[in-house]
Amino acid sequence: MFTTIRRYHMKQPGQTTEVTRRVQQGLVPILSGQPGFVSYSIIDAGADVELSISTYTDRAAAEAANRAAASWVSENLADLVGAPEITMGERIVHATASPEQQNLAVVRQGYDAFGRGDIPALLALFDPDISWTTPGPSDLPTAGVRHGHAAVTGFFQTLATLGDFERFEPREFLAQGDRVVVLGDDSMRLRETKTTVDARWTHIFTMRGGKVAAFEEISDVSALVAALRSAHAKL
Q1: pTM: predicted TM-score of the whole model, two decimal places
Q2: How confident is the model at residue 233 (pLDDT cuts 50, 70, 90)?
Q3: What is the distance of C-alpha 134 from the center of its chain?
Q4: Average pLDDT for the chain
Q5: What CATH code is assigned to 2-90?
Q6: Confidence tier at 153 by pLDDT (50, 70, 90)
Q7: Where are the domains of the chain?
Q8: Cα 61 to the center of its chain, rounded Å
Q9: Are 198 and 219 in contact (CB under 8 A)?
Q10: How far is CA 198 from CA 18, 147, 177, 225, 228, in A?
C-alpha cells in the first residue's frame, strides 16, 4: 500500500469550505476511479490548512493518481490554494478496528448523545429507514414499532412527556457480527404521578453500513403501565 499526503494552504482565509466542495464534486470521483484506489480523506487541519490522504495498492497506482490530482488541482483550485506540500511512501504499519469494535463505537456515541439530550446527534447515527421497536400495551404511548427518523423523533418527544430520567445507565455492551446488545437500567420520575419507576432493559441494535438499522428494547414495563393507568383512573 502506498499513501500520499498533500498539505494545502489557502491563499485567503475562510476558503476551506469552497475547496472541500470542489474536491468532493470534482477530484474525489477522479481519484476513486483510478486503478488501485483504496481510500481518500480530507482533513481540516485548522489555520486555513487542509490535508488530503489517499491510499493505493502500489507505487505505480499512487504515482498515476498523483499526476491526475496535480492536473485537476492546477485547473480547478489554483485560485484558492498554493502548490501543495506532498509526501508519499509505502504504508508499513496499519491497524483498523474490527467491525464489532466499530459497531460498538457507534452505539456508545448514541448513548452519549442521548445522555446529553442531543437527539439530532443521535438520529445522525441511525439509518434513514430505521426500525424502532419498544415494548408495552397499546395504551402505553411509547410502545410499538416505528420506522424512519421522523417517527423515532416522535418517540423521543413522547418519552419526554412521560417523565424525566433520574438515572439512565447502560452497563454492559456485547457485540457479535452486525448485532450490539446493551444491558442496563434506569429510574424515571413520572410527570403525572410524581413517582419514580425503576426498569431493567436489554437493547438490541442491528447495524448496517455503520448505522443503526434496527433497534429493539426488551424490558418489563408493567410498573410503568400500572402507574400511568392509576393516574388516568383518578382523573
Answers
A1: 0.67
A2: low
A3: 22
A4: 93
A5: 3.30.70.100
A6: very high
A7: 2-90, 99-233
A8: 31
A9: no
A10: 51, 27, 31, 12, 14
